[in-house]
Amino acid sequence: MIEEYIIPIIVIGVIILTQALKMVKEYERVVIFRLGRLSGVKGPGLFLIIPIIDTVMKVDLRVVTIDVPKQAVITKDNVTVAVDAVVYYKVLKPDAAITEVENFKFATAMLSQTTLRDVIGQIELDELLSERETINKDIQELLDVSTDPWGIKVTGVTLRDVSIDDTMLRAIAKQAEAEREKRARIILSEGEFLAAQKMKDAAQLYQDVPASLKLRELQTIAEVAREKNLIVVTNSTDTGDIVAMTSAVSKK
């Protein structure tokens, strides 16, 4: 009689053992609930649970990538831009990720979208185009603070693309051209100012040292002679001698 029950008992034991024996990979953890209460976190490797009494939920600890879809956002200076991003996060506390939020993946994705809109709405277009690294860091910090109670760590945020309509692009191009023209005018004005300052200093030097003016006059005459010019206009009292000397040099 006993032998008749051995095989069914063995089969039942194997089934129970199969249900009780669990295995998870290195990058996975299992959150166990015993009669509805949180019992603990198991893994990696093999472990046992109590069938029927225990229920399990598996959590992946690897970095997850969220593709935040492109969305229209109005910047602080009332410019509409289309922005999309990529968010990277990982689960640090599997029990919190299961018990603190209904669906941590969906919640993190939605939070990423709203945080992106909030941050972009508080900055101007110029800052958005030139300070992407700073904006990425700000979004990451805000997301990390919000997801910390869920046991989630946001490891990175990257703004992938910022699209602007053609009208705004033309306006930006005109603004950039005007900025370059302004810088060119400033540089030209500074050059003229420095040249005038040097001329003022030279005039003061000629006034203080009359001999230097005479030397400069002779140097000018020599330069004119090399160019074969026959007439030299001067206010000197020795004009005749100067013209004669210049002509002689030129004839040679």
From TrEMBL:
Q: Which InterPro entries match?
A: Band-7_stomatin-like (IPR043202), Band_7 (IPR001107), Band_7/SPFH_dom_sf (IPR036013), Stomatin_HflK_fam (IPR001972)
* A Gene Ontology biological process term: proteolysis
SMART domains referenced in this protein's UniProt entry, alphabetically? PHB
- Cellular-component GO terms for this entry: plasma membrane; side of membrane
Record localization: Membrane
Question: What membrane topology term does the record carry?
Answer: Single-pass membrane protein
Please list which residues make up the signal peptide. Answer: none
**Start and end residues of each Band domain:** 19-176
What family does this chain come from, according to its entry?
Belongs to the band 7/mec-2 family.
Protein name from the UniProt record: FtsH protease regulator HflK
Its lineage reads:
Archaea, Methanobacteriati, Methanobacteriota, Stenosarchaea group, Methanomicrobia
